[in-house]
Specification:
The protein is α/β, with parallel strands linked by helices and 451 residues long. The protein has 19 helices and 13 strands. The chain is globular, with a radius of gyration of 20 Å. Bound molecules: pyridoxal-5'-phosphate.
């Protein structure tokens, strides 16, 4: 499997290893697979008895068969995933795919773990180009950073620098970012998540800085994070394909749209699914695009589902590339947009998020995190709509509710039980450096540490 830039699909194709370490293409585009492999037979061959690692190994082999043999694929799957997704029924016609069994208790552990394992493997194979070390630079609105920090913590020859918006992540999220120490460095940015993301993009655009420090990204823009996220859709499909419902729909709480894009990729590779629902919070530029055909990014606003507070989702460029490759960088499309053939949008206000958390708890006794609640709300609206037939909606449960204690307390008057792996972070001291929201401030920090 080779990769090209979304901004120059006819340009030079690079290997997986190169795409992994470069993160973003030299022209500022995102790497995207050149070919659309036909994995229909492979995906349909997976059944209820296939474990998550079985599914992941089969997918790795199917996608990267030219680089990894079966044994290597399985070893990579095993090394990446010491945790596994779980399906549970929430309401009739509505299942949750729990994705928070990893060390940071959010779905991003899947992408981050695979990325770390794949980078390590490429560095060991000598396939990472001229480099023997790497500095990973990543912006987080809360959850990315802790997943990446945990996945890379203690790895040799790799340092991780995490930018997060000061005062805009939860206290627990901040502890998860700032307490690991060692090769994990936390920068507290005076600004918003969009500022953090812009600073990272600007740093990568500085060729001299990038080369000198071997800068690499670990954001959801990195194909090493994106691709493994397709594995749990395939796993869920394999678990559910023999059920009675005629239609399978995935509902994805979305911010930067990496998770959703991974599902769409699995669909382009042959996973049979009727539809996807993109559940957004008040930052609803994609649902608006689906309705109006106009994509107009804008500054993000803070919501209860803060890991989805993204005003200009990076992966939209990939979605455009998949659905409308001729459109280049146009921000408008004729209606109905090509994307809306498979994707429905739903914007969920803070009030609805809160009300859904409360109602879900009252009717099922289960506590869902605010991001998952946005998904549950969107799934319920879909099931009530004319479009839904005999449908099973699988909503991705993106984080453990205990990561959002304050929101849970306000919504349902109760605190979820905190898993041990989260409790230990709270006891450790915070270590971070405050920086202004400029490229200059970031460059100075990077050069001081690694220059
Ligand atoms: C990151 C995150 C999201 C949004 O995922 P994207 O891939 O950025 O769309 C949703 N929920 C939680 C808990 C997250 O951490």
């Amino acid at each position: 499997m080779k990769f090209v830039s979304t901004r120059n699909p006819d340009g030079p194709a690079v290997s997986f290893g190169e795409a992994l370490f470069r993160g973003i293409a030299p022209d500022g585009g995102l790497y995207h697979p050149v070919d659309v492999p036909d994995l229909r037979a492979l995906i349909r061959s997976l059944g209820e008895d296939a474990s998550f690692v079985d599914c992941a190994a089969a997918m790795i082999q199917g996608l990267f068969g030219d680089e990894y043999d079966a044994e290597t694929s399985r070893a990579l799957a095993l090394k990446s995933f010491s945790f596994t997704p779980e399906l549970r029924e929430l309401l009739p016609g509505l299942q949750l795919l729990d994705l928070f069994q990893g060390p940071s208790c959010a779905f991003k552990d899947y992408g981050a773990s695979f990325l770390a394992a794949a980078m390590e493997a490429e560095l060991q194979r000598g396939d990472a180009g001229p480099r023997d070390r790497a500095v990973i630079l990543t912006a987080t609105s809360g959850d990315t950073g802790s997943a990446v920090a945990n996945a890379f913590s203690g790895r040799e020859n790799i340092d991780v620098v995490i930018l997060y918006p000061s005062g805009r992540v939860s206290p627990l999220q901040e502890k998860q970012l700032t307490t690991l120490g060692g090769n994990i460095h936390a920068l507290e940015v005076r600004g918003s998540f969009d500022d953090c993301q812009r600073m990272v993009k600007e740093a990568f655009a500085q060729e001299a800085l990038r080369e000198r420090l071997s800068l690499t990204s670990a954001n959801s823009i990195n194909v090493g994070r994106l691709i493994p996220q397709s594995f749990y859709y395939v796993y869920a499909f394999a678990q559910l394909k023999d059920r009675d419902e005629d239609e399978l729909v995935f509902c994805v709480p979305s911010g930067n749209f990496g998770n959703l894009t991974a599902g769409i990729l699995a669909w382009t590779w042959g996973m049979p699914v009727t539809r996807f629902i993109a559940a957004s919070n008040a930052n609803d530029v994609v649902p608006q695009y689906l309705e109006s055909g106009v994509f107009s990014p804008r500054p993000s606003v803070s919501t209860l589902a803060n890991a989805m507070d993204v005003g200009n989702p990076s992966n939209f460029e990939r979605l455009m590339h998949i659905f409308d490759p001729g459109a280049k960088n146009e921000q408008t499309a004729p209606l109905p947009t090509p994307m809306s053939g498979i994707l429905t949008g739903c914007a969920v206000s803070d009030e609805k998020i809160s009300a859904t958390m409360k109602q879900t708890y009252r009717t099922t006794g289960q506590i869902v995190c605010p991001h998952t609640a946005a998904g549950v709300y969107a799934a319920q609206r879909y099931l009530e709509s004319e479009r839904a037939g005999n449908t099973l909606v699988v909503t991705l449960a993106t984080a453990h509710p205990a990561k959002f204690v304050e929101v849970c307390r306000d919504a349902i008057g109760l605190e979820p039980e905190m898993p041990e792996r989260l409790k230990r972070f709270l006891k450790l001291p915070k270590r971070s450096v405050v920086v202004e929201n400029t490229l200059e401030a970031l460059s100075r920090e990077l050069l001081d540490r690694f220059g």
